[in-house]
Amino acid sequence: MTLSHGNLLADVPAGAPEEIFTPLLERPGLKIERIVSNGQASPAGFWYDAPQDEWVLLVAGSAGLEVEGDASIHVMHPGAWLHLPAHRRHRVAWTDAAQPTVWLAVHAG
Amino acid sequence: MTLSHGNLLADVPAGAPEEIFTPLLERPGLKIERIVSNGQASPAGFWYDAPQDEWVLLVAGSAGLEVEGDASIHVMHPGAWLHLPAHRRHRVAWTDAAQPTVWLAVHAG
User: Does A26 reach chain B within 8 Å, measured CB to CB?
Assistant: First the structure.
């Protein structure tokens, strides 16, 4: 059986007009994906309200994540992670304008 | 509800005599943990044989991962990831001797 493998920092699209989602592992109850942002943010007033838990790691770049009920924006640098329980509303306030931001997201539940 | 968060690259123990495992999220069927290696390798002849799938990301440092049935060792640098299906035997051939190696491991199933 061939082992699946790769590198999150390889082939990172720079300057793409939309965020790019790349599934890395999918099975019932679990999805692991890479997300690349190039300065994108959630539209004003838009909140993610996910039915699954999400565990997110910032691998490269930087971002501000706004979580409903939290007093301040979570400013994330490489290595920063955050566990977003299901239905905890959140939005991307900003992502790095100068370089691609690479996320790892684990969706579970 | 307090959001759990942290940084994989913060408080990285350097020169620890053993590998250090830090659970970040645990729920039925899922465990996410940080592993820090400081030059450790699996003992000669030892193979991990896990009942769960493991998805592993190298965040910092470097390592060589030996997977049974693969012709060569997987040399991993930051950003490199590997999906190890359950019972696919593997061992850590080496980890960086000059700096801590930080892994993110997702165990599922």
Answer: no
Q: Which residues of A touch B1 (CB under 8 A)?
A: 85, 88
| Residue type for position B43 | P
- Asked if B81's CB is within 8 angstroms of A8's CB, the reply is yes
pTM over 0.90: yes
Q: Is B36 helix (H, G, I), strand (E, B) or coil?
A: strand
Query: A-chain residues within 8 Å CB-CB of B106?
Result: 32, 106
Q: What is the ipTM of this complex?
A: 0.94
- What pLDDT tens digit does each residue of chain B (109 aa) get? 568 999 999 999 999 999 999 999 999 999 999 999 999 999 999 999 999 999 999 999 999 999 999 999 999 999 999 999 999 999 999 999 999 999 999 999 8
CA dist., res. B96 & res. A75, Å (int): 30
B75: chain A residues, CB-CB within 8 Å: none
Residues 61-80 of A with CB under 8 A from B: 67, 70, 74, 77-80
DSSP state at residue A48: B
**How far, in Å, CA of A26 to CA of B18, rounded?**
33
Query: What stretch of H or E contains B66?
Result: strand B63-67
